[in-house]
Amino acid sequence: MFFKFLTFFSLIFSTFSSSPHEVIIIGGGASGIASFSQLSRNKTDVLLLEAESRIGGRINSVKFGDNYVDLGGQWAHENALKDPIYKLAKDLGLLERSNQSPIRLLYSNRKEFPNIIKKFQQVIQEVYQFNDVRDGKSIAELAKGVYSELTEKISIPEDFPDLLEDMLEHLQHQIQSAEGALDWNQPSAQSDSIDGVNFDYNWKGNGYKTILEILLGKSPYGSDDIDTKNKILLNKTVTKISWDNSDDTITIFCGDSTEYKSKKVIFTPSIGVLKSKMNEIFDPELPDYKKKAIKTLGIGAVVKVYLEFAEDWFNKHGKIGGFEFIWEKTMRKSLNTSWITSLSAILSVENNPNVLCVWFDGPKVPFIENLSDYELTEGIQFALIQFLGYKFDVPRPIRMIRSKWYTNANFLGTYSFQTVESRKRLSHNDLGEPLKNRNKRDVVFFAGEATSPVHYGTVHGAIYTGFREAENVNK
């Protein structure tokens, strides 16, 4: 017992007495790992603190079915391949261009869509490509206006009386999914993003975790294999950062009563965490311009649910990329479990034929994340039978796995988006500015996808900013 106490005492003493690290990185997501990899290769004394029991942040690849599935970031954008890390991944044969078969529209009333539906699909494309002046408008304002204008002269068949309203609801789901917003009135119609929403490249069943393995030089993707032992500490929830000390050091306090000192800090947690805890974590509090940046930037969530089946029943009648579900007005209003109408799409999963991916979006996401596995599975099964039961013999899944980004206190959302106000204020830039202490030294640096002015909402945006701040701390 004495020796156990002595060991514990030594650990606590070393926490207080050790000389400060050169850099401490808070958060082991894509940006944090990017910073860590670059600083480690530069032989910088760096320590990374991660609140979860794993690294990766909003990259979470899990073995499920025949291969890995991604509960978070899933596809690599075309623009990402300009980065040497992604180019290396492609050169190593780790990425392949996604070749999704067409995604079909289905109506909850099981009626075959009239030919006029092709016009609606063109309208939706025109909403996304609309180039009229839109600054100062939300994407909902733009979409409703363009939709109304372009559908004004469409003649609606008598047996589809609510088609106009149902297709507008469908457009809303598409936008909320793409933006990761709980409400389509939040994102700005004008966007500074230079990334599209196409599913450009997939990881051939190995998951987005592959990019982390490349960053850390893990075999067989590299030869340096960065030493992470005692340098990446898991289950370390940071509760306070004392960043304006007279000796230019920073003290970091964790929920397990440990403390760490550093000369500089790179802070990478999500904008959701900052919105919730910025006044608790930073001591002294953040300057007003940074608080306003945090408040104005948007973040919401989508829910991804993977279902594994005993066989590939989905493609028995030909290769199907997936289905988008359109819930007719009468059903949307009458269902007791109205949350199920937030199910907007079901997609096949590349390199995993017995697995389907179900997407939920919109304001019901927090409620859906709190449903039990049984309630969620039953609701999805109802939707599958409602939309597909007259075409397929729909089996029950044998396993299910789900995301819970919005209700996880370490994330509180999926990915950021621009609001009208944040775009006016250039909030992405303000969030990325370092904090200067009383001696006018840059001491706290900010990385993460929300600090990228043009790649926000993407994994490669997070990686870019991680590299950016690794360079900035050494200036």
How would you describe this structure to a colleague?
The chain is α/β, with parallel strands linked by helices and 475 residues long. 33% of the residues lie in helices and 19% in strands. It contains 15 helices and 21 strands. It has helices at residues 2-17, 30-41, 84-91, 117-129, 139-151, 163-179, 209-215, 271-281, 288-296, 329-334, 365-369, 373-388, 420-425, 427-432, 459-472, and strands spanning 21-26, 46-49, 61-64, 67-70, 96-97, 103-107, 201-202, 232-233, 238-242, 250-254, 259-267, 282-283, 298-299, 303-308, 322-326, 343-348, 355-360, 399-402, 416-417, 435-436, 442-446. Strands 1, 2, 8, 9, 10, 11, 12, 20 and 21 form a 9-stranded mixed beta sheet that branches. Helix 2 links the parallel strand 1 (21-26) and strand 2 (46-49). Helix 4 (117-129) crosses helix 5 (139-151) and helix 5 packs antiparallel against helix 6. The chain starts with a helix and ends with a helix.
Task: Please describe the topology of this protein.
Elements: H1 2-17, E1 21-26, H2 30-41, E2 46-49, E3 61-64, E4 67-70, H3 84-91, E5 96-97, E6 103-107, H4 117-129, H5 139-151, H6 163-179, E7 201-202, H7 209-215, E8 232-233, E9 238-242, E10 250-254, E11 259-267, H8 271-281, E12 282-283, H9 288-296, E13 298-299, E14 303-308, E15 322-326, H10 329-334, E16 343-348, E17 355-360, H11 365-369, H12 373-388, E18 399-402, E19 416-417, H13 420-425, H14 427-432, E20 435-436, E21 442-446, H15 459-472
Parallel strand pairs: 1-2, 1-11, 2-8, 6-15, 9-12, 11-21
Antiparallel strand pairs: 3-4, 5-7, 9-10, 10-11, 13-19, 14-17, 14-18, 15-16, 16-17, 20-21
